[in-house]
Structures are given as structure tokens and as C-alpha cells.
Amino acid sequence: MTTLYLCGAGNPEGVRLALTVNRDQNRWERIIILDDDPTKHGQSILGVKITGSFTELEQADKASSEVANLVARKTKGRQAVLRKIQAYGLPLATLIHPGVDTLGVTFGRDITVYPTAYLCANASLGEGSVVFMGAIAGHRSRIGCNCVVGPGAVVNARVELGEGVYVGTNASILPDLKIGPWATIGANSAVVQDVPAGATAVGVPAQVLIMDGSNRSKESSNGPAAEQQNPNQPCDPTTPESEQTEIKSRALKQLRLAQEKYIESYRLTNDDLIHQEENE
Ligand SMILES: CC(C)(COP(=O)(O)OP(=O)(O)OC[C@H]1O[C@@H](n2cnc3c(N)ncnc32)[C@H](O)[C@@H]1OP(=O)(O)O)[C@@H](O)C(=O)NCCC(=O)NCCS
Predict the structure, then answer these.
(1) Domains of the chain
(2) Residue with the nearest Cα to atom 27 of ligand 1?
(3) Relative to the CA of 201, which ligand 1 atom is closest?
(4) Contacts of 41 (CB under 8 A, 6+ apart)
(5) How far apart are CA 17 and CA 3, in angstroms?
(6) 216 C-alpha to center of ligand 1: Å?
(7) Quick one: pLDDT band at residue 8, thresholds 50, 70, 90?
(8) Beta pairing class for 200-202 and 207-212
């Protein structure tokens, strides 16, 4: 019996997407939800039963089963679940809402696209990426492997998201910017400059919130992004931790310099405006 296993019971919208895709394409004879939280077993979401833990995948027939990773709250958590799923060697299912126009869009494997997402021509989505409802991937934007673009977020034209980038609800990233791997963009933020790898950027305009153990401070997001991964290349989450730290600290030094320049140019612009008003 052809079966779709949905992994993670915390995302009813993902269950609805799977049901809608199946109604349109008739791909599976049954759909089942798996979750490692035993308190959820036996419950149902939209009539789809949570039958057990991920270990049920051991019994799945590889030729007639597919798996979808519904976990998308954080990209690291999503990746952890992906690794668990991959251990069972089953093919991952792509779920794209039938109402989404995909003409001229390039897709890796294991893609999830929710209703009302808008994928512009020549956008590309790397393996394992998710685009939520109402989000926009601009033309020639490149969404890397394992990225999540939250509801209503706008990834403008030619923007590049490195691997594992999380873009929060309604955030907007201006055209041509580069967001480094595993960076997070806060909900409703407006990103006006590149964001370095591993950083969290929040606000309008977005500032980088540095997470370093218990220390947190805000830095301007103005500055170059750390080295980018080509989003169309296969995922390789193997960069050693020490190297990641070095990349991050180099990028942050550059950020500070760029911030000083930005503040200076902003001050000049304001002064010019004041003089202009005085002369009117
Ligand atoms: C950016 C984010 C990941 C940070 O989460 P966090 O690490 O738990 O950080 P905190 O909530 O402790 O906030 C830290 C600081 O950033 C500020 N902040 C957090 N999110 C912000 C945002 N989106 N815009 C502006 N400021 C924000 C907080 O006010 C706080 O400021 P303070 O240090 O001056 O008090 C989170 O706030 C966010 O925006 N997540 C996106 C959620 C989303 O869109 N989900 C989609 C569902 S499908």
C-alpha cells in the first residue's frame, strides 16, 4: 500500500498540505503521522492518525513509501529530524500546493511549498527547503538547502540564502543581499544589508543580535555576509565548529567597520536635510 509518513505532529497546516496534494495527485493510498512524543500517539489531526514513533519507519516498504519532514519551527531542529528520518533510507516527499505556479522555478528534492506562496520565475529552492503561505521568493533568488521562509516573508530578487537560513514571518530581505548559512531573520524584520553566517538579525532596519553563551548585544547588520554556500550544491553540514566560529568572528569585525561607515553616512544625510529645510 503506498504510504506517506508525515514526521512531526506539531504542524497541522503541513497535514492539510499533504491531504490537499493527495486530493490533487492521488499519490498515496494512506497517510500516517509519526511523532516521538508518546502522549500524542492515538490522536488524529484532520482525520489523520498519529500511529507511533519514527521507529515505525523501520517496517516501511521502501518501494511504496515516502516520508515528509513537517518540523519547521527552527532550521537546526528541522535538520535534526531530517537526520533521524534519513537513517531509515526512505525517499523524501516533495509537497507543493497545487495552486502554486512553478513555471521557471528550479527545485532540489524534498521541497515543501504551502498555499499562496509565490515563487517568481528563475527562483531556485535547494533540497529540503520550505516556503510558507504568502511568502515570496523573488526572481533569480536562491534559497539554499534546508532553509525555511516563514509566512508572508519576502525574499526579494537575486537574494541568496545560504544553507539552513530561517526567515521569520513577514520579514523582508532587500534585493541582491546574501544571508550566510544558518542565520536567522526575526519576524517583521527589514534586512537592508548582508547578514553573516550563524547570526540572528532583527528589527527595522535589521540589526544583528549576537548570541554568545549568556552574552547578547546588538550590532548593525551592515556589512558583508560570511562565505556563502552555493544553494544549488548538495547539502554539506560538515563545516567544523571551530571554522564556523572563525568565519563568524571575521564577519563580525567587518560588520563593526561597516556600521561606523553607515552611521556616518546617515548623519551626513540628516544634516543635509536639516540645512535644506532651513534654506526653504
Ligand atoms: C528572532 C528570534 C528567532 C529571536 O528569538 P530568541 O532567540 O528567543 O530571542 P528573544 O525573544 O530572547 O529576543 C532577544 C531580543 O531581540 C528582540 N527581538 C526578538 N525578535 C525580534 C523581532 N522579530 N524584531 C525585533 N526585535 C526582536 C527582543 O525584543 C529582545 O530584545 P532585548 O534584548 O532588547 O530585550 C524570534 O524572536 C523570531 O522573530 N522568530 C521568528 C518566529 C516566526 O516568524 N515563526 C514563523 C512561524 S511558521
Answers:
(1) 3-93 (3.40.50.20), 96-247 (2.160.10.10)
(2) 202
(3) 1
(4) 35, 50, 51, 52, 53
(5) 15
(6) 12
(7) very high
(8) antiparallel
What is the distance in A from the centroid of ligand 1 to the CA of 184? 10
Q: Looking at ligand 1, which residue's alpha carbon is closest to its atom 25?
A: 203
All cell numbers assigned to 232? 544549488
The answer to whether the CB of 142 falls within 8 A of the CB of 125 is no
Which residues line ligand 1 at a C-beta cut-off of 6 Å? 132, 150-151, 168-169, 184, 186-189, 200, 202-203, 209
How do residues 148-178 score in pLDDT, each as one tens digit? 999 999 999 999 999 999 999 999 999 999 9
Per residue in 97-123, pLDDT (tens digit) is 999 999 999 999 999 999 999 999 999
Q: Assign 26 to helix, strand or coil.
A: coil
Nearest-CA residue for ligand 1 atom 5 is: 186
